[in-house]
Amino acid sequence: MENAKKKSVPVLPWMRSPIDVSLFEDCPLDLLPCLDPRLKVALQNMGISSLFPVQVAVWQETIGPGSFERDLCINSPTGSGKTLSYALPIVQALSKRAVRCLRALVVLPTRDLALQVKEAFAAIAPAVGLSVGLAVGQSSIADEIAELIKRPKLEAGICYDPEYLFQELQSAVDILVATPGRLMDHINATKGFTLEHLRYLVVDETDRLLREAYQAWLPTVLDLTRFDNENQFPRTNTFLPFAFGSLKTIRRCGVERGFKNKPYPRLVKMVLSATLTQDPNKLAQLDLHHPLFLTTGQSRYKLPEKLESYRLICGSKMKPLYLVALLQSLEGEKCIVFTSSVESTHRLCTLLNFFADLKIKIKEYSGLQRQSIRSKTLKAFREGDIQVLVSSDAMTRGMDVEAVRNVINYDMPAYIKTYIHRAGRTARAGQTGRCFTLLHKDEVKRFKKILQKADNDLCPDYSVPSSSIESLRPSYKSGK
Ligand SMILES: Nc1ncnc2c1ncn2[C@@H]1O[C@H](COP(=O)(O)OP(=O)(O)OP(=O)(O)O)[C@@H](O)[C@H]1O
């Protein structure tokens, strides 16, 4: 289990002297050294006038003096801007060499998150002539291949040698944002798909991606991009028979792009999370090169600056009434309600829709639903047509929806990491936000212990007017 009680594991030496991101200030774009003017304009078009501390710290270690010499492990609170912290330097670094081939891979655990990150890259990459692709299973694999692989122009009436055609296949994208499953599909079966030229690998939401369920993709990617001596010198015949062509990546030195006889540059890795694991065994899977740890403040688990936490203590039977009364008191502000499972998400959503006179639109958002339903619901939530999402944990890590003012834990989170990722859907990018947790009196002690692991365990009681509870009783009884 992600947080199952573990005997305390010694922290790796390189994690004991981290760079403290909280010592960095916001930096106006005008003062950011080496920022490509075209990227500055793209950022301004996104309404961004300065970079957040984590973005400045990472810029320093990548484009700045650090110059990508070390792999980066970044532990930064939810909503602190981690996506741009890696997207910006990678896009700037790739813009220096105008060759179309797959040189950056960003892996995320869910489709919605991958879509969100792809949009962040798409907002800046075209400004410097780079293209971004998506491999998440959102469309058919044939459509995805058409987006990712550029086919050679064929002249009518000429019969082409299949080996020639295979060699002529090229990547149509410089940057690929992918989920593990679809990435593996392309690695294993898409002609012309290769990681041979990969320079940057980003593992976002690392804790999630290092769990068993996703694990096959990481060793595969590391094997296909590892630079080892046996490839030090170009093979006499570097073309493997077609059948193996897309399965084995040959990393040659001295390829056409100017790395004349210099070893191919190493694969730079960046791993990020708001609750980055410190487990040596998990981190060992990443095969990090001279890793540098960037974290924020002294506490391992840091909540967003402007998050306010509250608790509501009530009997289990009364929980739905307290939830409805709380939602009514929030007067239609955007909320995400978390339950402990997809089944209870479905049950609660059904129950809430019994309260016909509730003026707020409530929808379920969970792994039980088809992706197309989830994407439609998320779009409606982003646009404000739905005010309340009832969700399970899996679906919301990293999700960035503007103006979510409140998070409500209908079921108490079992671990601090769960609390952080749930509460982190609000109070993003320096905005204010509130996180309410409904507790049975027997849960109060355990919840207090969980919250004490965070840098801010203040969690006063919040009361909803008893009149609103009473007024809801009749409709609740009739719905039972
Ligand atoms: N420099 C900036 N100025 C203003 N807004 C920014 C800046 N950088 C990022 N943002 C916005 O802040 C929000 C949060 O960014 P992002 O999703 O990257 O956070 P995160 O740290 O990845 O959060 P999580 O841990 O939940 O994934 C996004 O809406 C993003 O557009």
Q: Which class do the helix and strand fractions yield?
A: alpha/beta
Strand content: 15-25%
Present as ligands are: adenosine-5'-triphosphate
- N/C terminus separation: 35 Å
Major sheet, described briefly? 8 strands, parallel
Oligomer class: single chain
Principal-axis shape: globular
Number of helices in the DSSP assignment: 17
Task: Summarize the topology.
Elements: E1 19-20, E2 27-28, H1 37-45, E3 50-51, H2 53-62, E4 72-75, H3 82-94, E5 104-107, H4 111-122, E6 132-135, H5 141-148, E7 149-150, H6 162-168, E8 170-171, E9 175-178, H7 180-189, E10 200-203, H8 206-209, H9 217-225, H10 242-245, E11 268-273, H11 280-284, E12 292-295, E13 307-313, H12 319-329, E14 334-338, H13 342-352, E15 362-365, H14 371-382, E16 388-391, E17 404-409, H15 416-423, E18 433-439, H16 444-451, H17 466-479
Parallel strand pairs: 1-12, 4-11, 4-12, 5-9, 5-10, 6-9, 10-11, 13-18, 14-16, 14-17, 15-16, 17-18
Antiparallel strand pairs: 2-3, 7-8
The structure holds adenosine-5'-triphosphate (ATP).
